Every structure is written in structure tokens, then in C-alpha cells.
Amino acid sequence: MRSLLALLIAGSLMAPALADETEGLILSFDRVDRIVVMTDMTVWQIPITIETPEDLGRGDRIHVEFDSAGEDGLTEITAIERLAVAIPEGTDGGS
């Protein structure tokens, strides 16, 4: 009985990594340090192992997939996908 109880307690203490995702607009992107700041002021450090579009920048809408450890926070960004390219400043976006 004690070993079963110990096993249950040990299992509950090990928080599994959960896949999560978000999307939003880029406020700024530092290509050297690979830091993305979103318009909601969320800051993402992109690992060197994740490929990003060369022209990724301000105003682009992106989708970020990451692993989290529940309440313990972010553990790893697993993917970034650009959903929409920003319209360059000075253009009306019409055809």
C-alpha cells in the first residue's frame, strides 16, 4: 500500500509538458538575438533550431506552438508559422 501511495505522489509531482499555441501580430523582431515582441507585449525567445522566414517583421501575424509545464511556464518553442504578411507602410493595400 505504501509503495502504491508513493508512486501516486511521485507521479503527481512530475508535471508533463503540454503542447500549447498562440497567435498574434509582431510589434518588433530582433534577428540577432531572435526575440519577438508581440503587440500584446508578449516576448518570445526563438531557439536557433526553429527556422523563421528571412523577411519576418513588424505587423506580420504569426502562429507559435510551444510546450509548457502547466503553471511552471514555458519550456520550449516548437514551431513558428507566418499566417499573414504585413502591408508595407505607405501602401493602401488595394488592387
Quickly list its features.
single chain, 5-stranded antiparallel β-sheet, mainly beta, 95 residues, elongated
Layout: helices, strands, pairs:
Blueprint: H1 2-13, E1 18-30, E2 35-38, E3 43-45, E4 61-68, E5 74-84
* Backbone structural class: mainly beta
Question: N- to C-terminal separation?
Answer: 73 Å
Order of strands across the main sheet: 3-2-1-4-5
Order of helices and strands: HEEEEE
Summarize the amount of helix as a percent range. Answer: 10-25%
Overall pLDDT = 80
Low-confidence runs of at least 5 consecutive residues: 4-8, 10-15
Q: Which geometry do the CA atoms define?
A: elongated
Number of strands: 5
Describe the 3D structure.
This protein is mainly beta. The protein is 13% helix and 41% strand. It has one helix and five strands. The chain has one helix at 2-13, and strands at 18-30, 35-38, 43-45, 61-68, 74-84. It has a five-stranded antiparallel β-sheet, with no helix packed on it. A hairpin with a 4-residue loop joins strand 2 (35-38) and strand 3. The protein starts with a helix and ends in an 11-residue tail after the last strand. Mean pLDDT is 80; it is low at 4-8 and 10-15.
